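The following block was generated as part of the benchmark described in Methods. Ligand: flavin-adenine dinucleotide.
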Amino acid sequence: MDFGLTDEQIALREEVSRFAANEIKPVAAEYDRNEAYPDAVMEKAAEMGLLAPHVPIEYGGIGYSTLETAILVEELFAADPGIGLCIASAGFGAEAIIAFGTEEQKETYLPPLVEGEAVMGAAISEPHAGSDVSSVSTRAEKDGDEWVINGNKMWITNGTVGDYFVVVCETDPDVDDRYTGFSQIIIENDRDGFSAEKITGKLGIRASDTAELVFDDVRVPEENLVGTRGMGFLQIMQFFDETRTAVAAQGVGIAKGAAERALEYAQEREQFGRSISEFQAIQHKLAEMYTQTEAARGLTYKSAWGVDVDAENVTMLASMAKEYASRVATDVADEAVQVHGGAGYVDDFDVGRFYRDAKITQIYEGTTEIQKNIIARELLGKGF
Amino acid sequence: MMKVLVTVKEVAEVEEDFVLDGTRIDDRFLEYDLNEWDDYAIETAVQLAEAGDDVEVVSATIGPERCEETIRMALAKGVDRGIRVWDDTLASVDLLDVNAKTEIFNAIIAEEEPDLILTGVQAHDDSFGATGVSVADAAGYEWAAVVNALDLDADAGVAHVRRELEGGVEELTDVELPAVLTIQTGINEPRYASLRGIRMAQRKEIAQQTLDDLGLDEGAVESQITLTDMYEPESESDVELFEGDADAAAASLASVLREKGVGAQ
Ligand SMILES: Cc1cc2nc3c(=O)[nH]c(=O)nc-3n(C[C@H](O)[C@H](O)[C@H](O)COP(=O)(O)OP(=O)(O)OC[C@H]3O[C@@H](n4cnc5c(N)ncnc54)[C@H](O)[C@@H]3O)c2cc1C
């Protein structure tokens, strides 16, 4: 068993952390307050090749493995989860095109993501279909050689800044099976009948764009179908292990960022004539924060490793990593605020923002409850 | 084809709190990083390579295995290959002085015959600020020190440079190649190594050379300088508060700045 990272992975972590320290940290609070998408940072991230690094080399990316993506995501989120998500999500949904897309789709949609010319999104959730993805009701009907799409998508990351979306639509409502009859279709934001409305007032990750998408008789050519008609869900499910591992890495990053800030503050702040880091109560908090973060990282790396080399058997591990790392993120951010005392309760320090940001990792990409359902289902040997 | 040699150094940075151990600072209190000036020199070289047709950029460094990580970051930013000089003799030298560095780089220059050599103005740790010019002298190259703008005309074999002199004076000079330019911070904006560059750098060559490989012996690195003492200077700080309205405060500030020598002429 080898727990070491390669020289390349170490260099990746160091250079991304240098980028994050110089380009993200100084502006994070401002984007959070303004709920603004960080265009200027995205441009620099594109220059460094941070966008959609999982895109294969032939299409301009690097072909990053799940583990390498996890390292990248952790560093970005340790600097700032909001801007971190903007960078990490620029190629959301691209995995479907990479795995199931036609050559033409790959050439059209993948290179612009890497170059920072386009941003995309994955649209699954709807106002009435969250945890229960099989109740998706956005409808795509075939009309000649076009798809005509009607429906609403809710909570879509990159909704108002995205150029195209892989949208899960019901294409064959008559099939009996709960999970077939859905298809993934690419919808560009400049199609007639497409509209996106930004959702404001989010608790955290406020730099990240979230929107409701409305499709009103949107027409796209039949070539926009990704993969096989009717197999949309089965296609998406293949990536849950990967995307959940990525959210686990977000949690590890948040925990790391919060713990580091708490450690620093504890050594600066003095009360009763000494550094608060001399109080055992504070020392124990720090010890626990770092231990939990390391445990979450171990589970996340193992899940990433599983996705990369043992993809058949990783589902339970990916859910464990996602559930645990997101819990650690919220717990550690909570303790980081506590270590800061009153200073942690205002936005002069980062930890208050981390505390708000952490919560999302327990909600999106399958809630904590859904992850536990999956773990239990695997334990009890039931199919989905 | 043009060849650019960039000298790079991994420098030690001392943590805020540290303990002196004779004339040494214990490794526990040191962090190693690329010399700041060299980052600008690397960027200058890589930009030349990107602008030119057939430009090879080679980095040369004197240092232990530890600094391969730093050199590889230079390779990730676009340097084509690296040379690292180290052996037991070098490891046993207390203080590598300018002469020793000159001998080593000179041997590399004889081997590589670069058209242009870029060094940092100085190294952040021992701040001799002399290596670049000394190397130029020994190699018989033209030179320009403290360059903060460069316009290279490779076909004509001339580097049009702007040099930063004392007291805010700048000088425009033409330097004929082959030449050594010592690069000042601020000449450009050093890039981050791209993820793709980091991947490609893993396969680039860092050739390790010993003094012997370079045709040098112990005598070449014998120093005429010995480090006799190391101590923390007493530091004093002085605060002057300007009172009054903005005009009065600005006037007092201006006179203090003038007194301290800021803004010549
Ligand atoms: C900021 C943000 C960004 C998002 N980005 C995207 C995106 O890019 N694309 C996308 O498609 N979606 C996105 N989502 C949607 C996200 O995936 C859903 O919010 C999530 O799946 C939960 O669905 P819901 O909000 O409808 O909650 P509900 O499903 O209504 O859940 C409410 C509560 O009930 C619990 N619950 C539901 N079912 C069960 C069950 N069977 N057993 C036990 N408990 C259960 C849940 O765990 C939760 O506690 C995003 C959401 C947010 C907030």
